[in-house]
Amino acid sequence: MARSVRSDGRLDTGLALVCVILAVLALILPRRTREGLAATLRTSVLSPLVALEGRASSVRAAVVARNDVLVTRGLVATQALQVKAVADENSTLRKLLGLSARLQDGFVPAELLPPRGAGDEFTIALATGSDAGVQPFLPVVTADGLVGMVQSVDRATSFAITWAHPDFRVSAMSVDEGAFGIVQPHLGAGAERWLLEMRGVPFRAKLEPGTLIVSSGLGATYPRGIPIGTVLGELSTPEKWARTYLVKPSVLPEAIGPVLVLLSLRTQRGVNGVWTTVSAADSAARAVAAAGDSLARAAALDELAARRTALDAAADTLADSTLAFVAGGRVTAADSARADSSARADSARVRIRADSGARPRVRRDSSKLRPTVPPPVTPPTTRTGPPPAVR
Amino acid sequence: MSRPQQQTPGIGSALRAWLGFTILLTAHFAVRPLFDGRANVDFIVIAILFSAVRMRPGLAALIGFLTGLAVDALAPGSFGASALVLTLIAFGASWLKAVFFADHVALTGLFVFAGKWLFDIAMTLLTGGASGASLVVTLLLWSPLSAALTALLAVVLLTVFRPLYRPHTS
Fold first, then answer.
1. Are residues A194 and A206 in the same domain?
2. Per residue of chain A (391 residues), what is the pLDDT tens digit?
3. Contact map slice: B 18-47 vs A, CB within 8 A
């Protein structure tokens, strides 16, 4: 038993020594031989393990690549948002620069201070104050239009109410000066809270959706011509003697950025032609409408001239036939009746058409050209009685 | 030091041992590449140590040598190093198994920790992959960390797959 254990021990030790010697030999083999031996093992008995390891590495690479893609996507999204914010700010500043250039003088640019928290969403704090000439009741504007009015002023800061403030009022008119009213916040619920309404518009003044509303200049605060908003539609109110319109503000709440405070002198001088884009657009619309009116007027005058020519010809014919009747007495009663009725019909036609030509049925301020409809022509009535006496 | 009396394992125990060894060997090539880091779990060391405590030292040395050759074949720059180190570790583990009472979980964890650390030290010194401060960091930081992870996994395996990896349970 002891011999068996001893021989087993020797066998184990011998086997271990052989393995160690082989391992050392593998370690000190020439490089080329080692690589050849390793390649032989990899392509034979170890090929399943090599494939397994390769597949696992591919899975890890895919996971890492997906993580990289997600990280890259997040970075790109962040950068895109930053680019859009920068572009928006750039656009706002460019428009403000354009407005400043048109105003030339009499204003104070002001940055907005951070909002003070909830419940104060209708007031903005400006980083400019009485040191820069800002006073209460001065209008605050952007390139898009009216923002509000300065309410209180410190030396370096000031506070202004926006058009959404419940106390905000401005005398307004449609840009074609066809309707006047008072614009104030629409104290509705939800998103409608951020709309305006134009009250007290005379009942005869009908405003179409999209009509631009500007300040009328009545009162001492807001000069004439500052865009306030565009008409969305008419509101139904119990006041039947005046109309109320819902107005979409020109300056949306999220677009209120850097602003300009118009100083007193500039307010007194007015801002005519400053918001040229809207004025130009409206002028262009009126020019198109006027061009349409002139074309209609020209067409009516041409028609009138043609009918006058026809009238003259008919009068000549009537005179000739009358003279022949008087002179020769050979005109039959039927001929006389036909000539008479023809003359009456022509005169009637000429009278009607002359009237219609004198008053072309196109409104002067209408932007849509209405086709001129010729008046109905009364057919000549055939009279069966004796011919009337020629006067 | 006289070697304690060996107990001959049954057929079922041997089969379970080979199954556990194959699973760990497969995991070394299928799972380990998924976790790329300085401190890694070494399934090969666990497989060698777990199988060595069930074998005679000579057979354990042979298994260690062949497994080391397989590892070396995939890293031909240090061909033979793993074979040498794993041969010695397997032989020593099989020789010392009775001393360490391999059925004790905590001692098994310590056993695996020591085996893995020794393996890393030997491999680092044999391959000469690091020197100076890097060598110190490798031997005293990353190698112990890898050894700890490997020992932790060995304890988990020993606890969860008790019939597969605990010797003499049949």
1. yes
2. 455 556 677 888 888 999 999 988 888 888 888 888 888 888 888 888 888 888 888 888 888 888 889 999 999 988 888 888 888 888 878 877 877 777 778 888 888 887 665 556 788 888 888 888 899 999 999 888 999 999 888 888 888 999 988 889 999 999 888 899 999 998 877 777 889 999 999 888 888 999 999 998 888 789 988 999 999 999 888 877 889 999 999 988 777 878 889 988 888 888 877 775 545 545 544 544 554 555 555 665 666 667 666 666 655 655 555 555 545 544 444 444 444 444 444 444 434 444 444 444 434 443 343 444 444 444 444 444 444 443 3
3. 25-26, 29-34, 36
B153 touches chain A (CB under 8 A): no
Question: 3-state DSSP: chain B helix, strand, coil percent, rounded to 5?
Answer: 75, 0, 25
Q: Is the pTM of this model over 0.80?
A: no
Alpha-helical runs (H) found in B53-102? 57-73, 81-100
Q: Which residues of B touch A37 (CB under 8 A)?
A: 73, 79
Residue A29 resides in a domain: yes
Kindly state the tokens that stand for A100.
């400043």
Same domain for A304 and A207: no
Whole-angstrom distance, CA of residue A158 vs CA of residue A135? 9
Give the number of domains in chain A. 3
Q: Which residues of B touch A33 (CB under 8 A)?
A: none
Q: Is residue A96 part of a domain?
A: no
Q: What is the CATH number of the domain that holds B44?
A: 1.10.1760
**Do residues A226 and A178 both lie within one domain?**
yes
Domain-located, residue B170? no
- A57 to chain B: nearest residue by CA? B33
Judging contacts by C-beta atoms under 8 Å, the chain B residues touching residue A24 are 80, 84
B100-107 LR contacts (CB < 8 Å, sep 24+): B102/B53, B102/B166, B102/B167, B103/B166, B103/B167, B103/B168, B105/B155, B105/B158, B105/B159, B106/B155
Q: Compute the distance between CA of residue A330 and CA of residue A348 in angstroms, rounded to an integer.
A: 28
Whose tokens are 């009499």? That residue is: A106
A45 and A125 together in one domain:
no
